[in-house]
Amino acid sequence: MSHAPAKVAYNFPPAPPSAVTESPTVKWVLISLTLLVISLFLLLPLIVVFYEALDLNVAFERAFAKPQTLRAKIVEALFNADWKQWWEHVSTPETWEAIKLTLFTAAIAVPLNTLFGLAAAWLVTKFEFRGKSVLLTLIDLPFSVSPVVAGLTFVLLFGAQGTFANWLAHPNLSLSLTPWRWTSIDHAWTFWQGDQIRIIFALPGIVLATIFITFPFVARELIPLMQSQGTDEEQAARVLGAGGWQTFFRVTLPNIKWGLLYGVILCNARAMGEFGAVYVVSGNYSGQITLPLHVERVYYASFVSVVPAFAVASLLAALAVVTLIVKTFVEWKFREE
Residue range 212-228: average pLDDT? Predict the structure, then answer.
């Protein structure tokens, strides 16, 4: 007599609805809403900036008066735009000074945050230690703090009446830093005044504020990526005799290179476009303003026309477009590998 096992009837719960099983109507409604929001809040302002910067009103009126295709009208209008006037607006000494200060600030802040992001991501993903959650919270702190509040904090710390005011005015410290005294006549680049080191309303304050605001970009790109990759390859390299630096440069860095580049691009874009914190620590004084602050100054100074302000703003818009192109290329290479 055979004893076959009794069949047990399982009542599995119904599978949750998946996004890919939604009806075509819902899918196209969501896509249309997304495109509408992107068009209104991203593409339209970008088009308006270049339209006003090049003063295309007259050029488009002439082009649309002719019987030709829409593409031919747009090409003709762009070709007949007042490029000479645009160049006159963006080639003023004040604009070049703002560009120089913006590039110099980014040239300091981005490499420092790249090194910090690499070190923080390596520490968080490769080691277990007490206080890791606190470190992650501190990394995200610039995302939750208003840039204006961050700038005000630096003023309270390093300003003339700040916490470190006496330390910055110490005569021995001043003597030790004399060989590095910056002798430029430009106001922002002169961070030395008598025996007082100038942090606020000078280049060091602008750099500190930019570093704080762009603090998390590289680290936050690398931490999830390195967590998903795990530590198996690094452990294999160490078992085979590789040292710490060899493991980093030959195993870890090749695996994260596109994620690292992606974070650097975002960090650089934010460093060049930061407004609130830099506005507070620079005081918006002449000779110590970055490009975003210069756009605001030109806008309020131009009572007759907004073309000069939009011409300067077009430089930042062009930077954003270049950033998007590079970002898209990096994402494509990232997916490819």
Answer: 91
